[in-house]
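S2.1 Query sequence (Ornithine decarboxylase antizyme)
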Amino acid sequence: KCCNKTPESNDVKENLLKTFKEQNNMDWATTFRSDGLYIEIPLHLAEGSKEKFINTLEFADTTLECKHVFIFFRKNRSDRASLVRTFMFLGFHILSPKTCLIPIPSDDYLFMVYTND
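Output structure tokens follow.
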């Protein structure tokens, strides 16, 4: 199962994620759940965001041992089509709004998932 579900393990992984974000000057909102890492894509993407994001994917796979990384952003963004294309190029897939993988279903957000092999 993705990201061991024991509370102790999740606490350790939350601390590892916090340290990683501090070391990489990453201020994106993230949520670590037993079924993966959730990342909210900010409205304004700073220079170097792509590299930071790729590093985060690698960190989620190798250090956090997550099977899934989820991203989400508001559906009404003007750059939505571009974001979807970019993340699909990176291997993400759009999630159905009815899937149980979405922690809080919302018509306002689009969720995508990347599965680590």
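Strands lie at 30-33, 36-40, 68-74, 93-94, 109-115. Residues 15 and 21 are 10 Å apart (CA to CA).
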